[in-house]
Queue: 4 jobs
Job 1
Amino acid sequence: MAVTDVHPPRSSAGPKRPLREPPGPVGSPFVGVLPALRRDPIQLFLDAWRAHGDVVRLPLAGGRHGYLLAHPDHVRHVLQENHANYRKDPRSNEKLKETLGEGLLTAEGEHWLSQRRLMQPAFHRQRVAAFGTLMTERTLAMLERWEPHARTGAPLDVASEMMRLTFEIIGRAMFGADLRDLAPTVARALAVGLEHTMRRIQAYPDLPPWLPLPDNLRFRRALRDLDQVVYRVIEGRRAVTDAPDDLLSLLLHARDESSGACMDDRQLRDEVMTILLAGHETTAVALTWTWYLLSRHPEVRRRLQAELSAVLGDRPPTVEDLAHLPYTHMVVQEAMRLYPPAWVISRVPLADDAVDGFRLPAGQVVFLSPYVTHRHPAFWENPEGFDPERFAPERSAGRPRYAYFPFGGGPRLCIGNSFALQEAQLILATIARQYQLDLVPGHPVALHPLITLRPRYGMLMTVRRWC
């Protein structure tokens, strides 16, 4: 459905007018739009934006309100220009902390800044580039497991395969740990944790997590499984004398500037848990949707394969090859435009704010949705189409920075964005130069918007060699 009543933000020059309340749906008494938010939050956001424009007021339960901002200028204002006035939404952030603790993703203020500075060297471009061989080697090992499927035509769940692969890579790269045997345990526990966290964020009333409800009990078991993996990583490193110079080494040797104390086990656990889970989930989700889109668009797949054949021949890709694979990069970018793994970002203003003449009250949640903004027709021609060439330099010229923000932006830009992009391109190139993946006919494909944008039913596909 095309948006016909959306306009660029008006200039703030001239006499100031009184701030207005944004338009939006009325919702139901007491619960507002919460039932729709629980049922299908992405559809709610899309419908509200299409009906009411770039600033939408959403009535929530308990007299609270949410404010959806869709224009790139508004996104820039919240994430960059006025970021000091915004913090993460306490309600959703506290639920995330039940799994991640006070890690880099959930921390605020000075603690976040200190941890960000500590970890930044592990994600320096030169260090990330050094992981290229690891990324291709683990992908090639996965393809060996795929050989029986290629011979027999037996389908496999590409969503699970991508999760397992990126989990192995992040474990090796950041923590020097071989976690291959633990991947199934983590996948099961993470799925339970994400479902539980999303239900808790959307719950009204918000029941305490200590109640012995079945969902809470399942979550506690899943969290115990995740903790066992993380503490195993930490203890394994402490037992090694000749440890690699990686992120875990930085964490283990870090000292507080004032007290000189090292991180305790809980602090280490929170940071390792955050990087281990967030560092593989988003890339795996992005790749899963990429394979789905390529299966639906054979003309794009043919062009991708032609580029890979011309540049790589019959050898696997290297980091140095990426500069010569522009179409491969554009395929990843376009897949993340249509299916951004981090599909929503929530912030809360500390003091009253305003965009485009509309009031944003302090203490109310502000939603920024890459899924919505990436479909804004003022900046994306045929926004629902899969067109990697829209990221070519000549077509990208003049496009606002925050028309596309799959990794967030401002000071809290994802620390692992370079790692994730390199990983996604190398995995895509390694697989696509040999194999063609096709969605199993009749397999249902639906969005499952948890903390990340997963496919609800996995992604069952057949694989066959094309060369």
Job 2
Amino acid sequence: MIAKLALENGIVFTGENFGAEGEIAGEVVFNTSMTGYQEILTDPSYAGQIVTMTYPMIGNYGVNLEDIESGKPQVSGFLVREYFDFFSNWRANESLAAWLKRNNVIALQGIDTRMLTKMIRTQGALRGVLSTTDLDDTSLVAKAQASPGMTGQDLAKHVTCEKPYRWNDVDRTTYALATQKVDAKRNGRRFNVVVFDYGVKRNILRRLVSYGCDLTVVPASYSAEQVLAMNPDGIFLSNGPGDPDAVKYAIQNLKKLVGVKPIFGICLGHQLLALALGGKTYKLKFGHRGANHPVKNLKTNEIEITSQNHGFAVEWKTMDAEKVELTHINLNDHTVEGFQHKTLPLFCVQYHPEASPGPHDSDYLFAKFIAMMESSRVKESPTVASA
């Protein structure tokens, strides 16, 4: 079936649909990962976006039940150069096309994704409409131009959980990272951590559990008072989609939590924490999306290859340099990739330490969070810690 992608700049791509039928609008972006399309498709941070894969052949290893990062696909649409239907993988349950159709995701193959990616890099992320029902170019371009942009959209409220829930699962797949041993000085005690779900990925939760955390995942709008009533050892701020400045309720809640409990934020959580501390964010031209972004750790001078998915960044000049310090920068464009508070138990990064997909260079950040909670626990209860 013929399908078309129309962009706000008037360009129309014609290809073949290998997913569901219908029509959808979204921000057209690209991801440079060579593998991990199933994790990308189910990452809530992609809500509202039509994702282009720069790797030319997609679908060759099918899909399985273990590699999904949320309850369903989160992307608005999916674009590839060539879809490969004859999958070969011992873990696969079905083809990518069958899975996309069953989950109502429109997917387009046979277009020049290299041209599209270069266009996005030059002009910036573009609004687009993907359709199998309306094939009139003029009509589709007009729809793309009338669709909402990403700036000002609070998408976290659409992907967050409806009510709190407990999570205690770890990664049990064949190639999972090792579960970390609970430090003997804790006497087997684990850490109670509240996770703000702005669009959290399941492998983030699994990795926290593997480091000795008992998790309670709460909605994005959960109040600071409700969180503090649970008396957690620490608070984790997850990834998520949309414009951080639009999530006003989360910013206000974080202002009440800063300095009260240890906090670790990633991606959208990193941006919200910056806003809660008085900083500002801005929209990147085409964002960072892929599993190969180089980041420099300014504390160690080491380079990490990181997994990233975001379209906004923290404007460092708006942050209070007397209170916070820059810890990580992106080596491609020198944008902010991490900071920490100079006196309070608080740090955050712009990228994904769980790296699904991606390298495991940043797994140490989970250990840093554990150490920060351990230190805070000792200060609060020295007699318990010494027992």
Job 3
Amino acid sequence: MSEKQIREALSGVVPEELGVDLVSAAAVKSVEAGEGRVAVHVQLGYPFDGVREHYESLIREALEPVLGGDRLELTLDHAVVPHRVQEGLSALDQVSNVIAVASGKGGVGKSTTAVNLALALQAEGARVGILDADIFGPSQPIMLGVAQGTRPETPDERSFAPVEAHGLQTMSMGYMVDELTAVIMRGPKASGALQQLVTWTRWQALDYLIVDLPPGTGDIQLTLSQRVPVAGALVVTTPQDIALLDARKGIEMFAKVGVSVLGIVENMAVHVCSNCGHVEHVFGEGGGDRIAQQYGTPLLGSLPLSRSIREQADGGQPTVLAHPEGEEAGLYRRTARNAAARLSLQAPGERSFPKVVTRH
């Protein structure tokens, strides 16, 4: 048996989330054979704790025919590296990858999706932060159950310490004002406030910073796209025709400023009656898939229209926390893995802080 045989066998292993084989993804880091043993190190560029056993099984099954009775010593882990951002921008200190979560219009469940995806990435084994970029209507503090009146610590006059919530590093305009206080400012000031929240927060060794954008394609979105280094964006939509129209605007905005769209997340795709189990496509069917095909980007996940998802977010315990073993949490985790895997295939960027050993 040779290293070539091992690599040829691994070239047939295609993790569903990754969409390409392990060899093509440069995930096979080393192969050593000799003395009745074969040591293989596979390292993926995204967290995958939820499917670790499945991945191990795929690899062992692929290698079994070529081992010739030798013992397989498999090391399977992940390491998240920075990926390329817009031209002319440098990576944020202590943040490997900024992922923007956007929607062309309000009411599509973008913020609920953003917080659950952040928690899902964390559950998969990543270090994650979330920035609530909705200056006028911040909602993440409520969704994360942060006590009203919580303020970030200010070690000096030009920095904030992120507020920790359920293991996430978080920052929001909601920490700066009372939840009943209206934030009134013109576009340039709002854009400046966002930039301060991003750059003045002392994030600590994050693999991913999820940025929950306000809906639309206005000043806030353009500021983030032009001044904040973004590795990739997710566009959240419902199957409704008007939502899809606005989602297209978001995709085209990111394309114009050089931000890669990782894919589409279709929210409220289907409603299952809690009494009789009847399935109904309240907002239409297949819209997310159509727009994904039109723009050559993947449909990362389809999430249901569910009262429990809304109630859990409103109660400060998003679905991934409230019912981590439930079907809906599993959908969020699969969507998060799909997005992170898609990002892992993009061109690398530069790291702005010392490499942190990932949890295996």
Job 4
Amino acid sequence: MLFLALKQLRARPRQTILTFIAIILGSTGYVVFSGLMLGFQDRILDSLINNDAHIKISARDQVIDRETFREVFFTDGGLKWAVPPSGKTDSTKLNGAQIWYQRLSQDPRVEAFEPQLSRQVIYVRGRFTVPGNLNGVVPTKHLKLTNIEKSIVNGSLMDLNRGGAMVILGQELLNRLGARVGETIHVVASDGTKHPVKIVGIVRLGSRMIEATLGFASLETVQNVSGSAGEVSVVGVRLKDVSLAESVAQEWANYTNDKVESWQKANESILSVFFTQDLVRNITTLTIILVVSFGIYNILNMVVNQKKKEIAILRSIGYSRSDVVVLFLYQGLLLGFTGAVLGLVIGYLICQYLSTITLPGNQPIGFNKLLISFKYQIYIRAFLISCGASVLASYFPARAAGRLAPIEVIRQS
């Protein structure tokens, strides 16, 4: 059966080669396209998951309106406002932090947690001023909470515990200030007070927009700078299983008035972009399937039409309908299998080459080359798509060939 399948494919070499090339290009295109898109997504997701907490617990933002004071002053609800209340509370203090510490320490799903305090400040160096954020962390706990240490290209997070007011700033923020490591600059808090701080490190995350406002200091330093002794604005939580972040955050939010937000909720806009990219990738996959399917269908359909006499002879000497169907399915599988294998090999080699291309500009380590994913799922999916499309496209011509009756073919001849 295999010999007959190969013989019929060799009978029309031009169409066979063109279809074979189409399958190779389809498999190669899927591997390269998916590798590029998923490589970018994986690196961004790794940054979102490992450079920040999986879940953040903070004071809930409250918008004040008429309903806020309903039945507060008068139980009958007969309060009349000359000017209706409006606005948003600006308190960032997390009042129940100690309760959360106890609860998190007893939850087996929690790997680590850390109190944090974030304040908006103005960084000043001579005549240069840059607004930004100063994030107060506990270095020993922050190392367990995130992988931010990998992004610190000069210094270490533990340098914040050396004593005194030490800060680690984003690369772009340093560039705008014209400052260097070891230099002392000033931080202006919201009350206008100016505090000297020493730069002990540089962090590079690959995003200039983030780096232009990013600063780290010890929790005590930020509390002193902002005049918020003992205050905590956020409790960051790292889970043992990051996939549980959304469900655990919803569970905790059910028994507290505090804001409990998972990393998925905080990065909805970025994840929506990934959804669009996946949609484009799936549409591309569908296009590849159609190209491969039509190519195989056309060549086998022509073979069936041109080989009716041979099919009639095979049926006359004892081949059953199922044997004829299997014969043409073999031809489709031969094209799909060999084309898919060669396409995967070529796609892998192209991805290897693309991963060596250096991106222009001063990119951080890990982002200075094209991000390519080599997940085995990509190659398995590409192989199954090519073989599946081959079987599907081969079935209809094969079924038509199996239905040919020898006597009808002889009469037509």
